[in-house]
Design a protein that fits this description.
The protein is mainly beta. It contains 7 helices and 48 strands.
């Protein structure tokens, strides 16, 4: 064999090992191996036996080859890669989850004799009973071949799950410099964001707001009306990926919201030492730095740790607005026994935005004439001294116990605590409109502080069982979520009207508010718990039937008290024995394509209040979905197409002529017979070597019982495209990328009590494009340039129908990032 050929083959094998080790290190099924150096065939047999993987390899492929010692804690996939390294062999997983052993693509040559180096062999497909690695870090792919429990507790692959799930992988986060959860969701199929100020967003899917968030599958509660929303502030430096389920999620999340669920999956320690640092600089004096250290903490590797820190500071295209953010994350994994894995960690994030209004940095959407406003994107009606500081800490623990016969027991708990201190002065529009000629706009002020505490607990047992001679799967479990939010704040105080708010000559954006007595206190408490069960029945090799159900209990209470005694409101609600059924069918047309259908019910307690101050009854309804999912090229390419319909009662619709008593908050009414129907199309993955693509199109339309369209600020059409290509040959160090997000027209019509005429706001269809260039100086050092809003499109990125404000999308901006592995 020519030395150059042998050398390149070894380099390829080492590269495959490195990539796969990073991608699979956190699969959750790692175990201890102690296999001596021996014949390769014997080593593969032992790895397969101890790892629960059925493995078949043509004898000529491994004849005369040897394997190194395999000692330490690895997933079965990692152990196989270590055994194969240096032999020009690789294993791959096909679309239906089976394993294939074959020569590496770079050394396989058609026409060579079977068994000789470089031979192309017929793929051997075998059933894999072990879970494939779910971690996307290091995979270099936009497609996730792992398993997810965001929709069901059955730990299914995306193809096996009869609902629409999109995954923003680690590689996608890196390519587009997506540092915050809002950045990632902006790129997620079917998702739009409404900026509500202070780095806070209302996330919309299928025409409805998402307030169901999970950390590693453990549900948390988000109530956007409290403005304490640490989940939607999350920095992504500590997360491996973001999973977004679009559609009803009642089986796992408790409350069955038809919009969807966001699951943020944390990074975990790696079996091998790895470290990287990155620094970045961008438009508006943006500076960012990250440090990530991970690896074994003892000689045997039975204890592993990871430490991540991030810091970001930036100004903004909005005058006087700036942000300072700090992130710290630590996690430890310990193999208590060969079958017991303990994980514990703590994350902390502090956000300190300055210069925004407590209820939003938005501009008035309307002039006093009723016409829609038009400002420079940098315009601000807020004081530069405004603050909205938040600090959130999240402690978590998880225990995985593997039992006999393929069963496992999983326990997880989260404890989330957030504090907030705020004070603001600014022009406000919730009870008056902006006079375009005089510049008159009411100037208001407020200060206060709040504290939020959440506890989430999850317990699940899952595994296979046999019935009528076939193998099936079962999962049973229980989860619990306790939420409390306390806020004390001064009443909004009118400070008069500046002479000309255009240039703020009378106060020069320098207004401050003294720490006033807390004239109001509010307390929100929500508690939900539920037991669930789900089974995946396999009547045939092609057909899967998923049957599940959840029995839940909900309690909520809201208290609003004016310390002067002039007003108080107390509302409580309780629902017991709420049944949420789930039915899903998946039919495999062939190894690459599967048809599916799913049905579940909707039951969602609400925090919206009507004109009398009473909370609206829970939303109730049904969700139906039909679709097809496909995987090609050994799982490197994923595609899906789905049609859905949502029917529900008690949908909250703005009662725009009224406010909630004792507040300036808009009142809502319950709409009966609302119906949403839509279409989701998506493709992700590596279309050819070095070419990654993520493309999607979604359509959604919501109508009331009379057929009139509602939820019109959510555009009917969304299309998103992002692609990168690593150049071949001598230009291999260069990767080029780009994409565009397009959405159709959105609008709304409202009749606030303080306006003499109906108001109509509109944003026409628009597209925002971006570019990316990365240059790899070596395997360890790379430089990336991202250009966002390439053509400097001006558009309203959000139109708020509560305070009648809007926020412009960011102008063209640049981010430069340097990353180095240590």
């Amino acid at each position: 064999m020519p030395p150059a050929f042998s050398h390149s083959r070894h380099l390829l094998a080492i590269a495959c090992l490195t990539t796969s080790a990073n991608a699979l290190a956190l699969s959750g099924l790692a175990q201890s191996y102690d296999i001596p150096a021996q014949d390769l065939n014997a080593s593969l047999i032992r790895i397969a036996s101890e790892g629960g993987v059925q493995l078949a390899v043509p004898a000529p492929v491994v004849r005369g080859l040897s394997a190194p010692a395999i000692k330490g804690r690895f997933t079965p996939e990692q152990a196989l890669q270590r055994a194969l390294v240096g032999h020009g062999l690789e294993f791959a997983r096909t679309a239906n989850g089976t394993l294939t052993v074959r020569p590496s693509a770079a050394v396989a040559s058609p026409g060579a004799a079977q068994g000789e180096p470089g031979a192309t062999l017929k793929e051997v497909q075998v059933t894999a009973s072990a879970e494939p690695g779910s971690t996307t870090e290091g995979s270099g792919s936009y497609a996730s071949n792992g398993r997810s429990t965001v929709a069901t507790p059955l730990n299914l692959t995306l193809r096996e799950t009869p609902q629409t799930i999109s995954v923003i992988t680690s590689q996608r986060l890196r390519d587009q410099a997506l540092s915050g959860i809002g950045d990632a969701l902006q790129q997620t199929p079917g998702i739009t964001l409404q900026n509500i100020g202070g780095e806070r967003y209302s996330v919309m899917s299928r025409g409805y707001a998402i307030d169901s968030y999970q950390h590693d599958g453990v549900p948390t509660t988000l109530d956007v009306t409290t403005q304490d929303v640490s989940q939607s502030l999350a920095d992504l430096s500590i997360y491996d990926r973001v999973e977004v389920l679009r559609g009803a999620s009642g089986l796992m999340s408790g409350a069955g919201d038809p919009s969807g669920t966001i699951n943020m999956v944390r990074k975990r320690p790696t079996a091998d030492w790895q470290a990287h640092v990155s620094v970045g600089a961008g438009s508006w004096s943006k500076a960012r730095a990250e440090v990530d250290l991970s690896g074994p903490l003892n000689a045997s590797g039975s204890v592993r740790g990871r430490l991540i820190g991030a810091y970001q500071k930036s100004d903004s295209y909005i005058d006087y607005y700036q942000l300072d953010k700090q992130v710290l994350y630590g996690v430890v994994e310990a193999d208590l026994t060969d079958s017991t894995l303990l994980t514990a960690g703590l994350s902390y994030q502090k956000d300190d935005p300055r210069g925004g209004i407590g209820n939003g940095v938005g501009l008035p959407l309307f002039y006093s004439t009723g016409a829609q406003s038009d400002f420079d994107r940098s315009t601000s009606f807020a004081s530069r001294y405004n603050r909205n500081e938040t600090a959130a800490s999240n402690a978590f623990v998880a225990l995985n116990q593997r039992l006999s016969e393929g069963w496992s027991l999983d326990f997880a708990a989260n404890q989330l605590r957030q504090t907030r201190a705020f004070s603001w002065v600014g022009g406000t529009t919730w009870n008056a409109m902006f006079n375009q000629d005089t510049g008159n706009l009411p100037l208001n002020a407020q200060s206060g502080d709040s504290e939020q505490n959440q506890t989430g607990v999850s317990l699940k047992a899952s595994g296979p069982f046999e019935l009528f001679g076939r193998k099936h799967e079962l999962a049973v479990g229980y989860n619990y979520a306790d939420y409390a939010n306390d806020t004390a704040y001064s009443p909004k105080a009118a400070l008069g009207v500046p002479g000309n708010i255009y240039n703020f000559q009378t106060w020069a954006h320098a207004g401050t508010v003294a720490d006033a007595p807390h004239g109001r206190t509010s307390n929100t408490q929500m508690r939900q718990s539920g037991a669930y069960a789900a089974a995946r029945l396999r009547p045939s090799d092609q057909l899967s039937l998923i049957l599940g159900g959840r029995l839940s209990r909900y309690n909520s209470r809201y208290d609003l008290v004016y310390t002067s005694g002039t007003y108080s409101s107390h509302e409580s609600a309780e629902k017991k024995n709420v049944l949420t059924p789930y039915v899903g069918i998946v039919y495999d047309l062939d190894p690459s394509h599967a048809l599916y259908a799913s049905y579940t019910t909707i039951f969602k307690p609400q925090s919206y209040q009507d004109r009398n101050g009473a909370f609206l009854d829970p939303r109730e309804g049904n969700s139906y979905e039909l679709g097809v999912k496909s995987q090609f090229a050994d799982g490197k390419i994923h595609s899906s197409a789905a049609a859905y319909q949502i029917r529900q009662d008690n949908l909250a619709v703005a009662d725009s002529s009224y406010t909630v008593p004792g507040t300036t908050n808009a009142a809502y009414r319950a709409e009966k017979g609302a119906r949403t129907q839509g279409l989701d199309l998506e493709v992700n993955g590596e279309l050819s070597r070095g070419w990654n693509v993520a493309a999607s199109y979604t359509y959604a339309k919501t109508q009331d019982s009379a057929g009139a369209r509602i939820s019109t600020t959510f555009p009917k059409h969304l299309a998103k495209l992002w692609s990168t290509y690593r150049l071949p040959g001598q230009w291999n160090a260069l990767t080029l990328g780009g994409g565009v997000n397009w959405q159709s027209r959105s609008d709304f019509t409202s009749s606030p009590w303080w306006s003499a005429k109906p108001l109509h706001g509109e944003q026409g269809a628009y597209a925002v494009a971006g570019l990316m260039v990365r240059y790899d100086f070596s395997e360890k050092v790379s430089l990336t340039i991202n250009i966002n809003n390439l053509f400097d499109k001006q558009y309203w990125s959000s139109m708020d129908t509560t305070f009648y404000t809007g926020v412009y999308g960011a102008p063209r901006n640049v981010m430069l990032s340097l990353r180095a592995a240590l």
